[in-house]
Amino acid sequence: MRGWVVLIWAALATIVLIIVGIFGTLLVSGRIELFPTPAPTIAPPPVVEPVVDTTYDVVILNATPEDGLATQMKDVVVSAGWPVDNVSASEAGSQDFPATTVYYLLPEDEAAAAGLAGVIGGAEVAQSDFYQPVTPESRQLTVVIGLDRTAAGASPDPSS
What we know:
The chain has 2 domains: 1-36; 57-149, Alpha-Beta Plaits (2-Layer Sandwich). It is 31% helix and 16% strand. By secondary structure, the protein is α/β, with parallel strands linked by helices. The relative contact order is 0.17. A 5-stranded mixed β-sheet has the order 2-1-5-3-4, with helices on one face. It is built from 3 helices and 5 strands. α3 links the parallel β3 and β4 (124-127). Mean pLDDT is 86; it is low at 154-160. It has helices spanning 2-29, 69-79, 110-119, and strands at residues 57-62, 87-91, 101-104, 124-127, 140-145. The radius of gyration is 32 Å and the shape is rod-shaped.
């Protein structure tokens, strides 16, 4: 009977050593971690509800080689309820702006910028202090018309 007890203990010890060896190898090779670091959770950005606020001044800049887009965009904005005196249209300093974008200055202006983007048929919305109002107390949104609104749709050069 003693022989069976020794054999069982030897078999049990062998199994334990094999399991410890496999676990140790996995641990050393980095395939498992005893105390894994939790993955950081990323909070989704807050969703801004678009608001059409016609009290803002709107500056429309045509940054494409196609003439008349700023005037057409002005007509769309005025027909949406903005006073004619609060909307100005002109040419931009460049003609290769890729995507139509509505720029706003302060974080609290983002909802109005999103509303204006919806009025003009969709556009990107971005915060920038580059397009500042003439008077600091006025609130202004700036629409830069990009190549996505041209007749070609993407590029003024047909070869590109």
